[in-house]
């Protein structure tokens, strides 16, 4: 018996298959059970006190009203400088850089700016969970290119076969969440060949741009001139400065693309929290603040993996991001979702089942662990897992 009123019955969901995200589900379960939470991706340690002091300075200094719609000029200039230094590419701070309330907003704004009903959007899966809802809400049609363990490398012929006259946007994510896979310059060249002479835009989610391992460098799509002219490059300070709770990111795109991007951003959020923008503008002036990240996280990845040595899990070390995926085919054939729940409850380690990032929930028996945690926590989690 349902006591739904006609009013509620008329509420046809625009996202009928969407429930609560896996990140919320697993973090909540970890809290309830007291498990070590290696599920949702966020640092288990605090950001720099210097950054907090800078925010405090601007909070107390009266920087508490709306920021300009496109972002505080000093922060846009600092990002332009960082981008020029790091990738040798110039984006104009006035017309080509927009500050957003996290990468999530920037991704949504990009998809909304370019996808019309019926347009096809190419998505590499496993895919970060906010991509497909953004496509759906804009009437787009996701077209999946499925990447599989252990390499998750891209077969470019498969991608070519999926491109049609309706393809309007390709969504890229490097370094990749959840797999830690990183694009090579060959991937960039392959993508450029594929989109040449076609009316296809690209959104490149590069929120882990500063977290790459074993000497790898980040191949930002902006570094390829043919890709740059059609790409919205998305960044986030959440990953770079251990401030995921501040929700501050940005979009770099050529002027005409930024004009359309800003039309959406203007009515999604209008502008982004002011004192934090000023603080980040100051903090960005010291490149060491992000140059130390690869070594910092590689040590944690290696610590976690050293702890798993002798277990029945198998893995390829993550190439980037702060996630490590592991295969458990030698341990059990349980569905990954069930195992993630069971491990949280029984041994007190929460993870993310990678099937949730596939449209058809492909279960390759892989769990994702976030290693952005204190060393002692990582060692304890690895020990519990080793004894499985
Ligand atoms: N893209 C990817 C691949 C992510 O992992 C995340 C968050 N972990 C985001 C986007 C969202 O970033 P933000 O918190 O800045 O919105
Ligand atoms: N991006 C984070 C992850 O992959 C989670 C962000 C969120 O909770 N929405 O775990």
TrEMBL record:
Annotated Gene Ontology cellular component terms: cytoplasm
Keywords: Aminotransferase, Pyridoxal phosphate, Transferase
Cofactor: pyridoxal 5'-phosphate
Protein name: Methionine aminotransferase
Keyword Transmembrane helix: no
Family: Belongs to the class-I pyridoxal-phosphate-dependent aminotransferase family.
EC nos: 2.6.1.88
GO molecular function: kynurenine-oxoglutarate transaminase activity; methionine-oxo-acid transaminase activity; pyridoxal phosphate binding
Domain of life: Bacteria
Domain (Aminotransferase class I/classII large): residue spans on this chain: 35-385
């Amino acid at each position: 018996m349902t006591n739904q009123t006609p009013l509620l019955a008329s509420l046809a969901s625009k996202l009928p298959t969407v429930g609560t995200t896996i990140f919320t589900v697993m973090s909540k379960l970890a809290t309830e059970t007291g498990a070590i939470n290696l599920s949702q991706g966020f640092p288990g340690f605090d950001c720099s006190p210097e950054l907090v002091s800078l925010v405090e300075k601007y909070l107390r200094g009266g920087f508490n009203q709306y920021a300009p719609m496109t972002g505080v000029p000093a922060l846009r200039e600092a990002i332009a400088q960082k981008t020029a230094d790091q990738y040798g590419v110039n984006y104009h701070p006035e017309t080509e850089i927009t500050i957003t309330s996290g990468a999530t907003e920037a991704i949504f704004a990009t998809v909304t700016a370019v996808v019309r009903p019926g347009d096809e959007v190419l998505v590499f899966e496993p895919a970060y969970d906010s991509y497909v809802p953004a496509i759906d809400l804009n009437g787009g049609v996701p077209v999946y290119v499925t990447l599989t363990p252990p390499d998750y490398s891209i077969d470019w012929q498969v991608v070519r076969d999926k491109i049609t006259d309706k393809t309007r946007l390709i969504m890229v994510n490097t370094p990749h969440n959840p797999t830690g896979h990183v694009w090579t310059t060959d991937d960039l060249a392959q993508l450029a060949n594929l989109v040449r002479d076609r009316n296809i835009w690209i959104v490149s989610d590069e929120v882990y741009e500063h977290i790459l391992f074993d000497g790898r460098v980040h191949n930002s799509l902006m570094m390829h001139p043919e890709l740059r002219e059609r790409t919205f490059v998305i960044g986030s300070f959440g990953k770079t400065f251990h401030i995921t709770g501040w929700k501050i990111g940005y979009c770099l795109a050529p002027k005409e693309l930024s004009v359309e991007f800003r039309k959406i951003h203007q009515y999604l959020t209008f502008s982004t929290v002011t004192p934090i923008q000023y603080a980040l503008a100051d903090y960005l002036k010291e490149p060491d603040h992000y140059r130390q990240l690869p070594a910092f996280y590689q040590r944690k990845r290696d610590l976690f993996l050293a702890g798993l040595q002798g277990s029945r899990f198998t893995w390829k070390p993550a190439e980037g991001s702060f996630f490590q995926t592991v295969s458990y085919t030698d341990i059990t054939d349980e569905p990954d979702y069930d195992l993630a729940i069971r491990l949280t409850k029984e041994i007190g380690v929460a993870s993310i089942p990678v099937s949730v990032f596939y449209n058809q929930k492909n279960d390759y028996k892989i769990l994702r662990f976030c290693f952005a945690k204190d060393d002692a926590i990582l060692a304890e989690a690895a020990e519990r897992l080793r004894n499985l």
